[in-house]
Amino acid sequence: MRPQVTSTEAHCIGTPRAFSSSIDRRLNTLVRHLVAPSLLLDSQIRNDIMSASPTSGFHADSVFAHIDRAPEDPILGVTVAYNKDPSPIKLNLGVGAYRTEEGKPLVLNVVRQAEQQLVNDRSRVKEYLPIVGLADFNKLSAKLILGADSPAVQENRVTTVQCLSGTGSLRVGGEFLARHYHQLTIYIPLPTWGNHPKVFTLAGLSVKTYRYYDPATRGLNFQGLLEDLGSAPSGAIVLLHACAHNPTGVDPTIQQWEQIRQLMRSKSLLPFFDSAYQGFASGSLDADAQPVRMFVADGGECLVAQSYAKNMGLYGERVGALSIVCKTADVASRVESQLKLVIRPMYSNPPIHGASIVATILKDRDMYNEWTIELKEMADRIISMRQKLFDALRARGTPGDWSHIIKQIGMFTFTGLNSEQVAFMTREYHIYMTSDGRISMAGLSSKTVPHLADAIHAAVTRVV
């Protein structure tokens, strides 16, 4: 009879040597009970028994041995390379995360206040949230992006679900559309955030692009945008950056937004807004939400993914929301029921802490006002970094027109540097950025601007 493996031995399966030793001991014991004592002196018999040990296959190749090492994420991989660099002058301008003048991560004062308030509330528990998340958070998030006086909000035509930051909101929205929308093609701007194509493809949508950026002017290719959306099939989904386009920092004007809205509505194109930087671009929450509100004001339907990573500095809390604006309250209710069926098998329900911080701030007038002040300070510092970098390049007589640095908006600047120039700056100046020449202005400070300007000047004059 084959001996039963105990729970202790089963636990050792992950460590073949320990498991083998345990089995060997059990077999020795078994042999002592079943074999004549004289035979125990025969080492050949003992070896034969041991050679039949069920552990013999544990030293074979892993069942995953065929797997290739995946490349680093093109954005997060920049930080991996930066961390390995021992240089004291290294500078990370890759990942979009705000830094202070001292180059340190910032936790907003109002966030600390909210957290302290939550900690002191002894009535709070750690129970699961509903599938759709924290109710106050959802209601307040919809009002923040759509406006408290939005007819869509007042008429309950909006369903909002708490998701895992902006990325999770996009993914949930993408999967919902793949299941329930009649068009499975989504048009995304070229270029766009590197994660967009992967998120929507894996959600089940077919991804196509529309022209957005003009390398010649380092501005908006508005004519190309209108032509591409004009030739898109009726009903197609269109991804739009609500403000502070990532990676270019180039936004349409309000007049251009109105033309985009009219074209999209005339062709029944479905807008899907990615709002990652509300308030962080201009310093005004209302100004940065204006494009979204224009599309909601005409009574049409749209989707909006929100993130609180940047504007509240809640990067690691993964706080976001997906709002779907519908024609009627009844449709919104049915849409929410289907969103639950997307979320439940994906992550069941969202985390409570970050959403509670956001809700605490948004529903308290004093805390909300303090947040808007801190938010504007962050936005203003980034704007000042743009001016300092532009002035530094002009002072050095760096070839080219660098006015796009102060014309672009938000966290990122699309410098216009090519991949060879980027590699040169990393190699010679220990400055890290994505290979397309995108830099995070939030990673700059008054102290590091001269170093960056020197590197850009050298790259432009020495590397074609």
Automatic annotation (TrEMBL):
<keyword id="KW-0032">Aminotransferase</keyword>
<comment type="subunit">
    <text>Homodimer.</text>
</comment>
<dbReference type="GO" id="GO:0006520">
    <property type="term" value="P:amino acid metabolic process"/>
</dbReference>
<dbReference type="InterPro" id="IPR015424">
    <property type="entry name" value="PyrdxlP-dep_Trfase"/>
</dbReference>
<dbReference type="GO" id="GO:0004069">
    <property type="term" value="F:L-aspartate:2-oxoglutarate aminotransferase activity"/>
</dbReference>
<dbReference type="GO" id="GO:0030170">
    <property type="term" value="F:pyridoxal phosphate binding"/>
</dbReference>
<dbReference type="InterPro" id="IPR004839">
    <property type="entry name" value="Aminotransferase_I/II_large"/>
</dbReference>
<dbReference type="InterPro" id="IPR000796">
    <property type="entry name" value="Asp_trans"/>
</dbReference>
<dbReference type="InterPro" id="IPR015421">
    <property type="entry name" value="PyrdxlP-dep_Trfase_major"/>
</dbReference>
<dbReference type="GO" id="GO:0005739">
    <property type="term" value="C:mitochondrion"/>
</dbReference>
<dbReference type="InterPro" id="IPR015422">
    <property type="entry name" value="PyrdxlP-dep_Trfase_small"/>
</dbReference>
<comment type="function">
    <text>Important for the metabolism of amino acids and Krebs-cycle related organic acids. In plants, it is involved in nitrogen metabolism and in aspects of carbon and energy metabolism.</text>
</comment>
<comment type="similarity">
    <text>Belongs to the class-I pyridoxal-phosphate-dependent aminotransferase family.</text>
</comment>
<dbReference type="InterPro" id="IPR004838">
    <property type="entry name" value="NHTrfase_class1_PyrdxlP-BS"/>
</dbReference>
<keyword id="KW-0808">Transferase</keyword>
<feature type="domain" description="Aminotransferase class I/classII large">
    <location>
        <begin position="89"/>
        <end position="456"/>
    </location>
</feature>
<keyword id="KW-0663">Pyridoxal phosphate</keyword>
<dbReference type="Pfam" id="PF00155">
    <property type="entry name" value="Aminotran_1_2"/>
</dbReference>
<protein>
    <recommendedName>
        <fullName>Aspartate aminotransferase</fullName>
        <ecNumber>2.6.1.1</ecNumber>
    </recommendedName>
</protein>
